[in-house]
Structure formats: structure tokens, C-alpha cells
Design a protein that fits this description.
Structural class: alpha/beta
Shape: globular
CATH superfamily of the largest domain: 5'-nuclease
Number of strands: 5
CATH class of the largest domain: Alpha Beta
Distance between the termini: 27 Å
Mean pLDDT: 95
Number of domains: 2
């Protein structure tokens, strides 16, 4: 399965680590464009130049880890797309260019199901996407969440697993994991 990852999923850190960690298992093929990666860097820059530098390093690491992930939309495609926010057309154009089956985004309102469906792309919220992965393989997803939680604690984010997932906008995944 080919999944285009929107910038809002790549930044913040916890969400990115979970999604790319899942991709590293071979569960799906991640896709993005250079413009999406630049949006990630610009979002990090709002936290200061040091955060931007870290983000740019992580972007290069992601490119190295997933060398086939970066796609380039064909010229003129973006202008032909209709979305509520014209600034998001580049994301759909990248999904089309990469042959994505799904578009992973927190901005569900900006990507109406009908507008994406015309192009054979399904919109998914990360909570739904990762919850599905948890139900498919609870042990593997539990290990991934444990690893990401451990890194967060080492980075000074001292939250329990469920609280960390809630902060990462993954409340359903946190609830399911706690109940398991």
C-alpha cells in the first residue's frame, strides 16, 4: 500500500516517529514531495532556528531511509485540482504522482472524501491508520509505541504511554492499547 504523508503528520515528532516506524516494518510504502518536506522544516522553524536545523537533519535521514518515497507532481496537475484550501492542492498532486492509495493527514476537513476519491485516493487520519495497524498486529505496534515512548522520555517528555499518544492526537490508539 502506498501512502502519501502530509506535513502535519511528519511534524510533530512523536507522530512522525510512529508513522515512519510503521513504514520501516514494511506495513506500507511512505510517500512525500519536496514541498511537503519543506513544510515540515518551516513548521519546525517556528520553534526556533535550532529546531529547524534538527528538522532538516531528520528530513535528510528520512530521505536516506526511504529513498523511493519522494515524488514530484507532473507540471500543471496541481492547478487542475479542487480542494477547499488551494494551498493543499500540492499534497493531492503528490499523492496522484506517487500512485498513493491513501493520504495520511490530520487536516481531514481540507481533503474531502469525494475530491480525493475521484483520483482513487482515500483520506485517513493517523489515529485511524495506526489503530488499524495495532489491531492487525498488537505486539508489533506495542513494541513500536514502547520504543517511541522510550525516546520521548529520553528527550525529556515525561508522560505515560496513553497521555503521550493523546498529545500526539492519537487518543483512540492510546485507549485501545491501554485496554489490551
Amino acid at each position: 500500500m502506498r501512502v502519501l504523508i502530509d506535513a502535519c503528520v511528519l511534524y510533530p515528532t512523536i507522530l512522525r516517529r510512529l508513522v515512519l516506524g510503521l513504514a520501516a516494518t514494511g506495513a506500507f510504502t511512505p510517500l512525500w514531495s519536496a514541498r511537503i518536506l519543506e513544510e515540515w522544516a518551516r513548521a519546525a522553524a517556528r520553534d526556533g532556528s535550532a529546531s529547524e536545523a534538527v528538522a532538516r537533519g531528520e528530513i535528510e535521514a528520512a530521505r536516506a531511509r526511504f529513498p523511493a518515497a519522494e515524488v514530484a507532481p507532473a507540471p500543471g496537475v496541481e492547478a487542475k485540482l479542487a480542494l477547499p484550501d488551494p494551498d493543499d492542492r500540492h499534497v493531492l498532486a503528490a499523492a496522484i504522482a506517487g500512485g498513493a492509495e491513501e493520504l495520511l493527514t490530520l487536516n481531514v476537513r481540507d481533503f474531502p472524501i469525494r475530491a480525493l476519491g475521484v483520483h482513487g485516493v482515500l483520506r485517513r487520519h493517523p489515529d485511524e491508520f495506526l489503530l488499524e495497524a495495532f489491531h492487525a498486529d498488537p505486539a508489533a505496534m506495542g513494541a513500536l509505541v514502547g520504543e517511541v515512548h522510550g525516546r520521548a522520555v529520553a528527550d525529556g517528555i515525561d508522560l505515560g504511554r496513553r497521555a503521550l499518544l493523546k498529545k500526539a492526537r492519537l487518543p483512540r490508539l492510546g485507549k485501545a492499547m491501554e485496554a489490551a
